[in-house]
Amino acid sequence: MPATTPTVQPIDHAQRLRALPPYLFAEIDRLKRARLDAGADLIDLGVGDPDRPTPAFVVEALRDAVGDPGTHRYAPGRGIPAFRAAAAEFLHRRFGVTADPDRHILALAGSKDGISHLPLALVNPGDAVLVPDPGYPVYASGAVFAGADPVPMPLRPGAGWRPDCDGIDADDARRARLLWINYPNNPTGATADTGFFERTLAFAARNGVVTCADLAYSEVYFDDPPPSLWQAPGADLDRTPAIEFHSLSKTFNMTGWRVAFAVGRPDLIDALAAVKDCHDSGVFAAVQRAGAEALRRFDHPDVTATREVYRARRDALVSGLRAIGCEADAPSAGFFVWARCPRGEDSMAFCARCLDEAGVVLIPGSGFSAHTGEWFRAALTVEADRIRQAVERLARVV
Ligand SMILES: Cc1ncc(COP(=O)(O)O)c(C=O)c1O
Question: How far apart are CA 236 and CA 230, in angstroms?
Answer without folding.
Answer: 7
